[in-house]
Structure formats: C-alpha cells, structure tokens
Amino acid sequence: MMVLLNSGIGNYVTSNGKKYSYFGGNNYLGLANHPVVKEAAVKSINEYGVNFSASRRTTGTADIHLVLEKKLSDFKGMQDTVVFASGYLGNSILLEALKGRFSAVFIDQYAHSSIDAAVHRDCTAVYYYKHCDSQHLESLLSRNSYSSPLIITDGVFALTGEIAPLDRIYSLVKKYDALLIVDDAHSTGILGQTGKGTPEHFNLPSDENIFQSETMSKALGSYGGFISGRSDLIDLIRERSAIYQASTSLPPPVVAAGIASLGIIKENPGLRTDLIEKAVKLRNSITMLGFRTTDYSTAIIPIILPDPATAKKLSFFLEENGIIVPYMNYPSKNEICMLRVAVSVSHTEEQTESLLEVLERWRKLMFRK
C-alpha cells in the first residue's frame, strides 16, 4: 500500500496526520531535508525562478548547471560530467552513446528495470547471467567469444543491498575485451574510500571501458541523473543523445540542492562511515532476532519473508506501532518477498532500538500461533 506523506522526509515523517519513524526511501545521508540544502534551493528560486523552460542544447543552460557539473566531476575525479532529468535514464543514455562499440549485452538477471528499458530493440544478442554469478557470466562470454561484449549490472542492488562482485567481473572485462556499465544509484556517495561508488569500493583501476550511471536522488539528496567520464564520452553524449538534447534542463532548486549537498559531503566525509556503521549494527541485530537478510555492508537491509501475505502483515504491524518499513511491491525479476529497511545516517539509536523491539514482538506473536 502506498504511503501518503504530509511532510518532507527525514528520520521521521508525517503520513495521514500521524508521525512515524521512517525506514523507507533512499535518503541515506540525510541530505534531502537538510537545512543548508533547502536554503540553497529557496535562494535559487528567488534568483532564477522554478524552471528554465528549455533544453540544455537551446536556451536552457544556466551558469549553475555548469557549476554542478564541475563539482560532480571533481567529486568523481573525472574530466567532465553531464546531468539530465532522471537517474532512470542514465543507462539508456550510455547505451545510446556506446552504440556501435558492442554487439552483445550481458545483464545480471536481477538488474534494475531501467537496464532492460535501455537495451534497444534492434540488439538481439541479449543474455542474462545468474545473479551475481561471475562463473555463469564467463560461461556465456566464452560461448559468445566472437562478440564485442557489454556487461551491465547494478553496483548495489536496490532491493537486497547486495554488492555486485565487480572485482571478478572486471577480470572478465579484461579477459574478453568487454565494456562494463555499472548502475551505481545506490552506491554513489556511500561506497568507496571517497564515496565514488562500487568500482572504488573494489579498488578497480581507472579504465576507459568502465562506465557508471548515477543519480543525485538518493545519497546526494537532490534529484536528476548524471554521468561522469572522459571529455570525449561526455561530448559524445551531448552531441548524440536524443534524451539529453530533447529534455528540459534540470530546474534551479534541484541544481542548487545538488551543489549544496556535494559541499556537505565534501566537508563531512564521516557521514559515509557513520552510515555504514549504523547499517552493519542494525543488520547484525535483525539477524540475531532470527530474521533472514543479506550479508553486505550497505544501507539497504531486506527482511526476507516466506510469502507476500506475511510480508504485508509485518509491514502493517510496524505501521501500527509507529514505524514505516515498506513491503516491496516493486518492478523486479527478483521474486523474493521482503520488507526493505533503508538506513539513514540521521536515524537515532532510540529509533533503531524501537524498530528491533517491534520486530522481536512480532516474531514472538507469530511463533505463538
């Protein structure tokens, strides 16, 4: 059931007039409602209005777009960056830009729906490898050794918090002279020594055949997608991408919020480590209560349940006790029934202890029957 919000999101929200402890969404670093970010957005409206009402290729580029792209490039350690309407579009933009450089596509079977949407209908050589299974991926690659392969995977999987084995996948990229796209929506700003994402998490070298599609709508606290890379790639996107060329540019408050959030992240590197420490502690406690989950150091903790009815009952029980943890009825090939606990650095110890107490009470009630 959809949650109707009557407030902004933070560690607490208001829904239908009632205050809830909030473990939903993707506000991992607590920036979506940060006062500095909100102040920057309001200031930008006073200066620019609410919309530039044109595409970037015509009259829709403002100075603040260039500032945001420069700051994202600095954050990623790349030559240039292009921002666009939504992170969902990033994989489509990348495949459009890379057209002609691959003849077969190899996709993790549980990859995000935006990846399936990105594969053009004229690409007939599309193969799905078993989830996070580099051995199966290699068997597919070896059987199609004549092809120019493109491998696509999530960096962190949105529902389960699993981290793709990019270290093993990268060895296949080198062995088979492949391209690799990593959808790093749930990793950017969190994983890696400086928050650059999953490739940095695995200490992969800088490689012109690795591409990341990324978003500002999760850890970065704003909205819109972006791709950072070499200048020739970004120039190609600006020249070739119909999505980029035909879309209205990001509005002023979104751009200003992104700039402000990047500043906060740069000045507070401990946000990432604090988040992971909280998530690991909570994940361990949930496991100790007897719930099934995954074993990764990410901010996404699935509570895996035997069937949809049980999952919905637990979500409703939590809601009755003042806590929102949504049942995930989400477009995915992963048929696991689960609740998805999203940890934010802004969550207090009192909130996590309350969540654990309610989860324990629910288990006792279930086993008593």
Structural write-up:
The chain is α/β, with parallel strands linked by helices and 369 residues long. The protein has two domains: 12-23 and 269-368, Aspartate Aminotransferase, domain 1 (Alpha-Beta Complex), CATH 3.90.1150; 35-267, 3-Layer(aba) Sandwich (Aspartate Aminotransferase, domain 2). 40% of the residues lie in helices and 16% in strands. It has helices at 35-48, 63-76, 90-97, 113-118, 134-143, 166-175, 198-201, 231-240, 242-246, 252-267, 270-288, 308-320, 349-368; strands at residues 12-15, 18-22, 80-84, 104-108, 126-129, 149-154, 179-183, 210-215, 225-229, 300-305, 323-324, 337-342. It has a seven-stranded mixed beta sheet, sandwiched between helices. A three-stranded mixed beta sheet has the order 1-2-11. Strands 10-12 form a two-stranded antiparallel ribbon. Helix 2 runs parallel beside helix 10 (252-267). The protein is globular and about 60 Å long. The chain starts with 11 loop residues before the first strand and ends with a helix. The mean pLDDT is 94.
